[in-house]
Amino acid sequence: MSDTCLFCKIIRGEIPSTMVYEDDEFVAFKDIAPAAPIHLLLVPRQHIVSLQDVGPADREWLGRMMALVPQIAFDNGCEPGPAGGFRVVANSGAHGGQEVDHLHLHIMGGPRPWSARSIPNA
Ligand code: 5GP
Ligand code: ZN
Q1: For position 26, which CATH number holds?
Q2: Which residues contact 13 (CB under 8 A, 6 or more apart)?
Q3: What's this model's pTM, rounded to 2 decimal places?
């Protein structure tokens, strides 16, 4: 946990958010500035800055995180199958367009067209 991190504050409930999923390891909430009809952020409770900070020792929780994506996407309105689907984005570091320094997956879906920001911070 970080005292100053925005997503740690959201996880602790100090900043309001629209939570759509919670378990012991992860939370998911709606992005405050959606770039698609459905735009969620899936976040580990543990304060890890970005994908640059993970390695082979993290493969189990990372696998659990990735395996949650379809369930969370479909539970929140993404349509299954080839005509539906979703986009997953992980910005990492300044060159990757990361603005909040707590690892997160953007889960984006819903009918197109999407906003011009359909890749956050493209
Ligand atoms: P990044 O650019 O770090 O990959 O994405 C950070 C995301 O967090 C952005 O899409 C932005 O809209 C979202 N965001 C920033 N501040 C807040 C907030 O206070 N609440 C929520 N729910 N999302 C936020
Ligand atoms: Zn944090």
Answers
A1: 3.30.428.10
A2: none
A3: 0.96
